[in-house]
Design goal:
Bound molecules: heme C
Radius of gyration: 23 Å
Helix content: 10-25%
Distance between the termini: 54 Å
Shape: globular
């Protein structure tokens, strides 16, 4: 098989790949897919496997079912109306699955597609995906947790019906463990074998040799053939998270080829030096943290300094306690008189919640942006801080 000939067009998007005239039956994913489910690790790492299963990472994609779709299918709640009275969507649960039906009377559109895969654990929301001819497409209606309601999928125009957005390999790379995209004479196809959720191997690399060794040497307590993020240098450790938490970077190679421990710049282009805009709060925690004095002045600081990714941590006040590894609250300059935010809530003032410029939802009446906590740790003007968060 000749890969080099094919790589260039394949890395951009599936749509581009579909249009290209590259040879038949070549795999877009060039390396063995990551394959071991977390249950493989349970005999020896029981506690981590149990707690990881509850995390947003583990639950970020799943087969669609009554249990995984958070939206409401009850009559009256199962409709998304738009600014046009002639365009609306209904969500239906039937014995053969859950479906979105779009009606556009003016253009005589009446299309129904199945919810096949759920993307998003539901912290903020979920987007849904359907199969058609071995390609995955985004459904036009998503779910917004804050409103407990159906919404136009992010970036979709209100009042129009669009079932044509292809789910890119890059989207799946950030929200799943493995997919195989194959090129055939009729175009690009996703393989039937894939692994949803973010599994252990995404952060620890190919674990097959590790499992084989320890199964054969039960008495050996020294780890073999596995990436321990704490034991590699900081840049490589940050790369493990940056594959998904450094925003929209252009690809050098096909999706799903990066393995933990490798140099990510060989797989994704770094952000251009000419970029002047601040990294977006949605999806670029790495870019923002890198701008912080804390990070630049602490050679060993990384995401794991504050986050234990094997467990669910949502409380910003509890995470603020991690600041005290390096700072002393007693030495903090006295806060201005009348200040109502408890000093212990470091993140409230130094990692305030800000609006995303990258993520927008269009409704019949408004354009809404998501808000996220910034990872650029700094001193912010008091009037930009929301004291409730
Ligand atoms: C048959 C037992 C066994 C299985 C199965 C197993 N491991 Fe391990 N693993 C060990 C032992 C023993 C160690 C070393 C002691 C320790 O750190 O717990 C270890 C250590 C590790 C470490 C720390 C490495 C280091 O350098 O300290 C990681 C990460 C790890 N395992 C990941 C995994 C993952 C991921 C899986 C499943 C894909 C897995 N292990 C399956 C036995 C196993
Ligand atoms: C999102 C990335 C990520 C995922 C997913 C992940 N880990 Fe880890 N894991 C890490 C990081 C980062 C560390 C190092 C933490 C530190 O700096 O101490 C680590 C450390 C470990 C260690 C060593 C623990 C220790 O205390 O020395 C083991 C064992 C381990 N992970 C097993 C697993 C298993 C099993 C799974 C799947 C059930 C898993 N990990 C999923 C990122 C991850
Ligand atoms: C394969 C892509 C991927 C990798 C690798 C990855 N993440 Fe994530 N992370 C995500 C996605 C996607 C979400 C959002 C999941 C959701 O809610 O559906 C997320 C969510 C999170 C959250 C929020 C969890 C919550 O419960 O609110 C934290 C914290 C986080 N990641 C930290 C890390 C750290 C630290 C690393 C590196 C050790 C890492 N991630 C590696 C994709 C990834
Ligand atoms: C570069 C990695 C990356 C890509 C590509 C990506 N996402 Fe995400 N996505 C994330 C991360 C990281 C988060 C959560 C943290 C954040 O928003 O900063 C997230 C959050 C989400 C959420 C909200 C999850 C929740 O539980 O609240 C949804 C839904 C989502 N993404 C869907 C998609 C879809 C659909 C695509 C592709 C069309 C996509 N994302 C592409 C990394 C990515
Ligand atoms: C690993 C150690 C470490 C951790 C953890 C850490 N910091 Fe820092 N931080 C530093 C260092 C070192 C500096 C630079 C001090 C200097 O230059 O005088 C710094 C600087 C700062 C500054 C001044 C920033 C500026 O731009 O002037 C603020 C504010 C700050 N930290 C707040 C926090 C908060 C809040 C947290 C927790 C959310 C935190 N830090 C976590 C090490 C750390
Ligand atoms: C100094 C401590 C600190 C460090 C270092 C840190 N975080 Fe966070 N992180 C936090 C705090 C505090 C929150 C807020 C939790 C909340 O409000 O739910 C958070 C939240 C998050 C979230 C959820 C964002 C959202 O609003 O949904 C993600 C994703 C995340 N961190 C990823 C990362 C990644 C990736 C890194 C490394 C680049 C990192 N964090 C480094 C403190 C830290
Ligand atoms: C009510 C908001 C607020 C809270 C809560 C808060 N800070 Fe600050 N912090 C500030 C302000 C404002 C400044 C700038 C003070 C000045 O320059 O006079 C500052 C300055 C700092 C600095 C830089 C000091 C310097 O000399 O440049 C550090 C480090 C810091 N804070 C860490 C923390 C830590 C750690 C916590 C949690 C224990 C915390 N802050 C909680 C508002 C806050």
């Amino acid at each position: 098989m000749n890969f080099s000939r094919c790589t260039a067009p394949l890395i951009v998007t599936i749509a581009a790949a579909l249009a290209s005239a590259c040879g038949d039956h070549d795999r877009v994913v060039l390396r063995d897919p990551l394959s071991l489910p977390p249950s493989t690790c349970r005999p020896c790492h029981d506690a981590i496997v149990t707690s990881h299963a509850l995390t947003a990472h583990a639950r970020t994609s799943a087969p669609a079912s009554a249990a995984t779709i958070l939206g409401d299918f009850s009559p009256g709640k199962n409709v998304l109306r738009t600014r046009s009275p002639l365009v609306w969507f209904t969500m239906d649960q039937r014995t053969d699955g859950s479906f979105q039906r779009a009606r556009d009377v003016t253009n005589a559109i009446d299309q129904t597609e199945r919810f096949d895969i759920v993307v998003g654990s539901g912290r903020r929301g979920q987007t849904y995906v359907f199969w058609k001819d071995a390609i995955l497409y985004e459904l036009p209606v998503s779910y917004l947790t804050a409103a407990h309601g159906w919404i136009n999928s992010p970036g979709y125009r209100d009042g129009s019906v669009d079932f044509s957005r292809v789910i890119t390999t890059r989207c799946l790379e950030c929200h799943a463990t493995s997919f195989i995209a194959e090129r055939t004479s009729t175009g690009l196809r996703y393989g039937k074998e894939f692994q949803l959720g973010i599994s252990c191997e995404k952060c620890h690399g190919d674990a097959r040799a590790h499992v084989a060794w320890h199964n054969a040497h039960r008495a050996d307590t020294v780890a073999h053939d596995i990436v321990h993020p704490a034991k590699i240098d900081r840049d490589r450790r940050m790369d493990i998270c940056a594959v998904c938490h450094s925003g929209g970077r252009a690809q050098r190679t096909a999706s799903f080829t990066y393995r933990a421990g490798e140099k990510l710049d060989d797989f994704l282009f770094p952000h251009p030096d000419t970029a002047t805009a601040l990294p977006d709060v949605h999806g670029d925690q790495v870019g923002l943290l890198r701008l912080s004095k804390c990070f630049r002045s602490s050679p060993n600081m990384s995401c794991a300094t504050c986050h234990d990714v094997h467990t669910v941590q949502r409380d910003p006040d509890a995470l603020s306690a991690k600041c005290l590894q390096c700072h002393q609250a007693e030495r903090h300059r006295p806060l201005t008189r009348g200040e109502t935010i408890a000093l212990a809530r470091c993140a409230t003032c130094h990692m305030p919640v800000q609006q995303s410029h990258a993520l927008q939802i269009n409704t019949a009446t408004s354009q809404d942006a998501f808000t996220m906590r910034t990872h650029r740790i700094a001193v912010y003007p008091r009037n930009t801080i929301d004291a409730t968060r």
